[in-house]
């Protein structure tokens, strides 16, 4: 027979077991969170180290090509003087061929285009994301171009710079992922540019796509939609959420046409900033 205290002991044991399980679950959760944070910190550290390495490479690239171009410019006048007699005698074709041959042998045209126009960007965040993504395109040997033919010292304060960087990063990543689908890398192509006029800041990027599917912008930006296999498809959806925070000063257009995916971003100063300027 059970004693009168038996149910009480069973209840106490059950409650103690529940408390123990609750404490164990909390400790387990805290442990998982700690591990996730450590993993994220490690990943962030690796990304930071990679970006620092790319920025150092860019600095070395500038130093190296500045010296090369300075020496090339110094020698070019002597070369022209040496070819002047041939030119005066009417042998223009031979002169042009000699100049072209010498230029090709002295200047690595592909290397010079690697970070073309990045020196016109004077905002660290915008320069850093451009260098990082152009280096990736260059290293993976995808054909690409980048342009920034105006000096950019400031952008509208109406949008958080980190949101702009995030949008630029997402679109570059999408372009790189799509380029990887081409069996022949030479068939891929990515074109991007920064531009500024009347206080506005513009970013444009386009990339060739493997399948010229006729998709609406609503489908492209839908949460979970992706043309990539095993991909979450959250990039353009994230961009749409960012855009919703800046309805009065951010314009975004994108779509697919004639084998290209095109993305345009424009940031406009708000009325207060325009009045201050």
Automatic annotation (TrEMBL):
It holds the Pfam family HATPase_c_5. Keywords: Membrane, Transmembrane, Transmembrane helix. Residues 160-267 form the Sensor histidine kinase NatK-like C-terminal domain. GO terms for molecular function: identical protein binding. Gene3D superfamilies: Histidine kinase-like ATPase, C-terminal domain (3.30.565.10). The chain crosses the membrane at residues 12-32. The keyword Hydrolase does not apply. It comes from the Bacteria. InterPro entries: HATPase_C_sf (IPR036890), NatK-like_C (IPR032834). This is GHKL domain-containing protein. It comes from Lactobacillus crispatus.
